[in-house]
Amino acid sequence: MQKKKARESAGPGAGAVRPAGLRHVSRISGTRVHTSVANEIGQRIVRGDYPPGTILPNEAQWSNMFEVSRSVVREAIKMLMAKGLLTSRPKVGSWVEPRERWNLLDRDVLTWYSASPERKAFLKTVQEFRYIIEPEAAALAAARRTDEQMAEISQALQEMGTATTLQDRTDADTRFHVAILRASGNELLMPLGVLIDSALDRLFVFTTREVNSLRHAQKLHENIEKAIRQKKPETARSAVRKLLANTDEVINSAKIAP
Amino acid sequence: MQKKKARESAGPGAGAVRPAGLRHVSRISGTRVHTSVANEIGQRIVRGDYPPGTILPNEAQWSNMFEVSRSVVREAIKMLMAKGLLTSRPKVGSWVEPRERWNLLDRDVLTWYSASPERKAFLKTVQEFRYIIEPEAAALAAARRTDEQMAEISQALQEMGTATTLQDRTDADTRFHVAILRASGNELLMPLGVLIDSALDRLFVFTTREVNSLRHAQKLHENIEKAIRQKKPETARSAVRKLLANTDEVINSAKIAP
DNA sequence: CGTCAAGATATTGTCTGACAAATCGGATAA
DNA sequence: TTATCCGATTTGTCAGACAATATCTTGACG
């Protein structure tokens, strides 16, 4: 999982001892420069620094700002273009596309989005979305899962139970939910795993849960696993709803962290 | 809507009178070369020419194959990378990522996907997905729609009714459904508009519907609009389900077109 | 014989500079 | 006033060079 990497703080490039001046984009070692530039620009756009419709600085300006070559800037811009964040035309430059064109379900865009000012609202939106998707996914999984897929789900559940650190537990939790999406047999549901990933990652902040709460959550997960194992779609559906309701409670009862 | 553009057949570049040889990628005038290259490579990947795990030709080879510069190839590859189709590393090259990493809900990927061999299966998957999403979206819309959003929905409906060509009708149909997604008030639902877009586009092939069938479909749409207008979530939900069921019927009763 | 280290090698990553193409805006002409 | 041309700006494309990185090979050594 590249989640770990994403969690690292991005200090000035580790291995970035460049002849002429330090890189003006934050890099983490091993990352390629165009990726960093794309991250930086993408984050700024999603964060709202450049509202939709705004003309962005031109390639030469980015190139100066970040002290990288124009090719790097161009490759970064192409990546953002591929995610629907912007469009360019000769003589006019690149401008930010309206939000409805953004590929919000893209892993990167979602990451940038989840880090933007309205974190609380974001989490609420994601939860609402999960309410729509996950119960149905579980129901489909209960109807169509293969034995391999079932094993994957069960294993993730077990790893949730035996996890020693909260981080490990969260990772296993994510695997559990994503495995269900996979078992649903609908390819279009799989890309939504990034959502859950992101949600649980955000949720991570809230979880200073005590043991009782954790045990309860575990039980709710077990119910889902059981329903899918026994191939009971309707039971699976409502089990997921219960889990989500519980998650909502956790969010609401927790004080909002910075 | 750039839907029109997507429907054009892609003959050898119109304005592509190049000094040395014709472009080896199909272009439509106005398109940029890197876009065409990305399209070509992306299509091949999604179509299955290069199964996941395969090492792709290297940049120099693409450059030769398409008779374009390496920078163009690189920009194209960056776009595909941004869509999760591939990853590259020095000395080893670029390889196709496993399908679950693909950003299937991306507009382009979806277009390539919908054109790939298993069209029928694709349509079925999309329909199943719509069953999950759209009823809930309509229910949310019924609960939260603003008057502007309502106007948008109603207008699309009306344009559906007065459309003279099947193409116009399909476009209005798409607008209708997307407007509902927008009115749902959940930003994450909006990107799914591309799905509906794609689905109706595919469906377009099937629709040699006679007048009666069209009139019936129109009525079903009206029911949805009415429920949202009257702010009745439960009614909206079931109205959408009825429409989708009708769509399924159309698909199943139609002979599969080439 | 196997294991590890150093070097050769292939491929992407980055830089630079140049020119082409597209397009916007204003100046000019009908 | 409207249409047309022209200049200027920005992205688009090209070419060639070198750097960084990872794989593979080869050889030394235990």
Provide the fold topology.
The structure is a homodimer of 258-residue chains.
Chain A lengths: L2 H5 L25 H15 L11 H8 L3 H13 L3 E4 L3 E4 L10 H8 L4 H26 L2 H16 L3 H18 L9 H14 L4 H19 L3 H21 L5
Antiparallel strand pairs in A: 1-2
Chain B binds a DNA duplex (30 and 30 nucleotides) through α4.
Which strand-content bin applies to the residues of chain A?
A: under 5%
Give the strand order, joined by hyphens, for the main sheet of chain A: 1-2
Q: Report the uncertain regions of chain A.
A: 1-21
The number of domains of chain A is: 2
The first-to-last residue Cα distance of chain A is 26 Å
Helix content of chain A: 55-70%
CATH topology of the largest domain in chain A: Four Helix Bundle (Hemerythrin (Met), subunit A)
**Helical element count of chain A?**
11
Task: Compute the average pLDDT of chain A.
Answer: 87
Q: In CATH's first tier, which class of the largest domain in chain A applies?
A: Mainly Alpha
Superfamily (CATH H level) name of the largest domain in chain A: GntR ligand-binding domain-like
Q: Say what oligomer this is.
A: homodimer
Tell me the number of strands of chain A.
2
CATH hierarchy: architecture of the largest domain in chain A: Up-down Bundle
Largest chain interface and its two residue counts? Answer: A-B, 41 and 41 residues
Structural class of chain A: mainly alpha
Q: Per the principal axes of the C-alpha atoms, what is the gross shape of chain A?
A: elongated
